[in-house]
Amino acid sequence: MSEDRALHDLTIVEAGARLRAGDTTAVELLEAVLDRAHRTEAQLHAFLTLDRDGAMEAAEAADDALAAGEDRGPLHGIPMALKDNLCTRGVETTAASQILAGYIPPYDATVVTRLRAAGSVIVGKTNLDEFAMGSSTENSAYGPSFNPWDISRVPGGSSGGSAAAVAVGSAFGALGSDTGGSIRQPASLTGIVGLKPTYGTVSRYGLIAFASSLDQIGPLSKSVTDAASILETIWGHDPLDATSYSGEYPELSADLEKGVEGLRIGVVGEFAGEGYEPAVESAIARMLDRLSEAGAAIVEVSLPTVDIALSAYYLVAPAEASANLARFDGIRYGLRVDGATAEELMAKTRAQGFGPEVTRRVLLGTYALSAGYYDAFYGQAQRVRAALRDEFGAAYEQVDVLVSPTSPTVAFRAGDKVDDPLSMYLTDICTNPLNLVGHPGISVPVGLDDQGLPIGFQVMAPALGERVMFRVAAEVERLATFNSRPVLEEVAG
Amino acid sequence: MTSWEPVIGIEVHVELSTRSKMFCGCAVSFGDEPNTNVCPVCLGLPGALPVPNRQAMDWIMAIGLALNCAITERSVFHRKNYFYADLPKNYQISQFDVPVCHDGYLDVVVEGQTRRVGIERAHMEEDTGKSTHVGIGGRIHAAESTLLDFNRSGVPLVEIVSKPDIRSAAESRAYAQELRSLVAELGVSDARLEEGSIRFDANVSIRPQGAVGYGTKVEIKNMNSFRSLERAVAHEIERQAGVLENGGDVILETRHWDEEAGLTHSMRNKEESSDYRYFTEPDLVPMHMDEDWVEEVRSGLPELPAARRARYVEFGLDVGHAGVLSDAPPTIRQLFDVAVGAGAAPKPAANWLTGEVIGWLRRTESDPVTVSLTGSQLAELVAMVDDGTVSSTAAKEVLDGVLGGEGDPRAVATARDLIQISDTSALEAVVDEALAENPEAVANYEGGETKVVGFLVGQVMRATQGKADPKLVNELLTKRLRG
Questions:
Q1: Which ipTM did the prediction report?
Q2: CATH class for domain A2-254?
Q3: For chain A, first and last CA: distance in Å?
Q4: What pTM was estimated for this model as a whole?
Q5: Among B200, B250, B256, B290, which residue's beta carbon has the most beta carbons within 10 A?
Q6: Which residues of chain A neighbour B91 with C-beta distances below 8 Å?
Q7: Is the domain covering B424-482 a CATH 1.10.10.60 domain?
Q8: Do A320 and B91 touch (CB under 8 A)?
Q9: Inter-residue contact B46 to B158 (CB < 8 Å)
Q10: Residues B70-109: pLDDT tens digits?
């Protein structure tokens, strides 16, 4: 089956099989994705930096190692893309902000170190909303990315570049970061798999922080199995991250073929109704029917607090961001706009270096933490988090996983929401509660609407519940038989 | 005229001398080339994360236990947000409402009286980098440029806040000195004022004697020595009294101590001071200082100055000597314990150490660690004076020789010919000679003028070139004269 398809359309599993069979090489795989990027970047702008030379060197090394009998596992020789908020030694890393224009980190993020150690080939750095703040990748200081299914539409965000690159075949897989849905939502809008692991399971060392208690790195890929391979490579305890989980990690691949027979699947009642596109709701309903036919018990579950989760999220995330982004002051690295005093230099640098959405959130967060407001805002938001955790905990006493749409809508048109922050924020309504509670969630494509735009199905699990989450996700993938790829008119870039 | 009672609280910052910094592996080292002990974490590079230093946590707990504090079972770090060029993240990782240590006290001796100063809290934080303003005057506003050195950035810093229990400038100084010797004793800090590894700020207010409430407090900064702390506090008390007596109001503010001018001037008004927007540091998890951990630290504590002073007093030393000896360098104090253990009388042993030995070290600018005197040699010297082998004057010379590496006291005394003639038969001949040569004196004695004995002793001492034991000579002469 995979024989008929172009190299760049293969999954990691398929490409790895060909590599090991001697039917292709890491260099060929790299050339395939670079060629694909060359033909699509003018329309998509998925990448901020393509590291052709570094990637070629790594691909050659991967081929040499394989020839010498050294196989480093599923990602060996596989071209991968990295969201540009992950630090890469010697390769410009900007978080899509002017304030980091030209910034070259002296070290690799832990996830990058692990990918390299696993033999994978880093193709380049992908576009994002500035500092991962946004849901459409339109907040990039270097220009927006577009959706390969319809280039008049956004790819979602903030990991929109990673999602577009994987969907179109400019990388076999990618890493993104998910603070409120920034992996899952773009995966949903571009018809691929994207997941946010349990908080603390993937080291944040080297991830340019947006909101430390919510940020989590995760994979974007063309299949559930690929996502498991990537996650198994990057997760695990890291002594460089004090919030890193140091206990037992679940087996991800063990139950992929097991099906859902006997599992209890909870449908979150709050994630439906007003604001949800009918096509999305019916795609979810169809999948629930199939899961039921496959032997799962479908249970209606209510999580009333998720209705205020978004408000809590927009206090916690900006509050933490206001401190995390304080270091960008023009003193030690990145953009500097001179001033007569140090204070003026910092103020001017920040005024010029940050885009409007980042400025809005820094101001919002600063306000939320101010004396006299702290308890009413940040303190209250933390209490909502605790209540939410209790509610999810109670739900998981009744069900094995929870499910919902990943996004209430399919990909929206570029420009539609940029001037209306609140409507943009609402696109993450199904995803951000998991960041507040630290639980894992995965988005699996389940179909296209009548305009040919992908719809994603979210599977959620309790903390460290990745095993059952993957088990259900794999079944959803099988039942959906979604194997469409975007048809994009290639234009040499 | 109103009589005023000062109310003073002191904040002390102690830089810990751990091998590595608070949240990264960089070396803690004073005086290195600027920006050589730095890494992504202490430079605040994008993506870097803090990992707490276990040693620093042990040490702040040691400080807390030494200050009789309670140790918080679950301690939390906070971010303290403010923008400053030498603060790389523009927030300091510090502690807010749950410090590691709280509610302790420190006993301080002031003019022979013991005063108990309450400790509000001791919390863990990280130090900032260092700014050097280049250009006219070295002051920030006139500077042409500012150089930044991040070697100090992230060095573990313990802030110790006293309760407002201090009542005078002298007490302020005594408290600061006591705290300094305590952290030096614990071995957790270099505690060098001149290098800034221990720094003091004072909160001063005054109220009419007998009043219950507090006056408006003023924070004073920039005291670089114990003396300047005492002077600054004394000045501030006087200044506030002047303001109030002239019908004015003390303003809530921070004042800068000007050492040269001997006065404070206003730095900033507290009303417009920053809102630090504290919130829990999300990059760190709460620390659990369970009982086992606390006990492990407690069992590793050395003898602390207060306990040591008490022990010395039990040995019979007076409070003053006990204090001086307690503050002496550890190698010197240990000589005392060994000497006493070897049978030396505590008082003379302490006198030799706090007087002659410390004086000699100062005079010769020697490092106490390399001192060649041993405890048993000190015991021997004390015994030699006690049994008359050497005179106390000669003993000083013997000690000089021992400190100079010439050998044991007896060997030095012999080599330098300082042994007293304590042999009665040897002295009797000299005594007889002296009596024969001074018939007038003998006659005077017989005439009731007994103090001529002193003159005769002098004659014997001269004849023996000072080596005779004067006590014995006196005895022999008196015996002969009484015939």
A1: 0.96
A2: alpha beta
A3: 30
A4: 0.87
A5: B200
A6: 323, 326
A7: no
A8: no
A9: no
A10: 999 999 999 999 999 999 999 999 999 999 999 999 999 8
